[in-house]
Amino acid sequence: MPETVLIPELTFAPPETAVVGRVIRVYDRVDSTNNLALAHPEHGTVFVADQQEAGRGRQGSRWHSAPGLGLWFSVSLRMPPRGLTFAAALAVRDAVLPRAALRVKWPNDLLCGGRKVCGNLVEHRGGWSALGIGVNVAHEAGDFPPELRDKAGSLVSATGLPWHRGALLRDILTVLDRYVLRIQEGRYGAVRAAWVRACDMIGREVRRGGIHGRVSGIDEDGALLVRTARGICRLETGELDSCGPRGARDYEAWRRTRRPGA
Q: CATH number for the domain including 62?
């Protein structure tokens, strides 16, 4: 395991939590905090890095994790992965209020001002889950690779307010602990229902590849149930080609006018 370090901006009073954050390990640079959480599992331990060299998102995508700009951390949990991605999205959303209003974009992104500022990834191995969360905190547009500049944002750029990474991390861990406890106590349904409301997808027109229809529901695992001309299709995690407003009468006209990444 790499040596832990003291980074002033990532130093904060331990959160008053039951599970999440009982131990917090801070590193200067790692390949991936999820890798650490899976290789050295300790229930509730949080692995934080100032920089990730191989941070990753859904479907193997790379997560840009530059030093000094964001929060890159993973929580090791001895529990099934079910519901953890819902808990992560809700916890970050709740933790930044009232300073910023984040929108949950199905399935696990958080947007601020229409730009992605947060994502999460859950991985599971041998009875242990690694819940990885990345939050863009202090980035300016030029801090992102060119291919991300029209989609990615940060809390600082979206709000114009200063954000202390350590204080923000403490707030996130405090709220995340409550959601994790609810899942462990058998209240998965309540966490899922809150996430479904936050996603606000029911009734929207969506398209992915050859599938085009209206979302009629979200199943127990978070997949969209899309009513199409051929019947109900199930869309699991992944990017939608487009997502329209509810009751859009002219879907194609709306799609031609939508802002990229919306």
A: 3.30.930.10
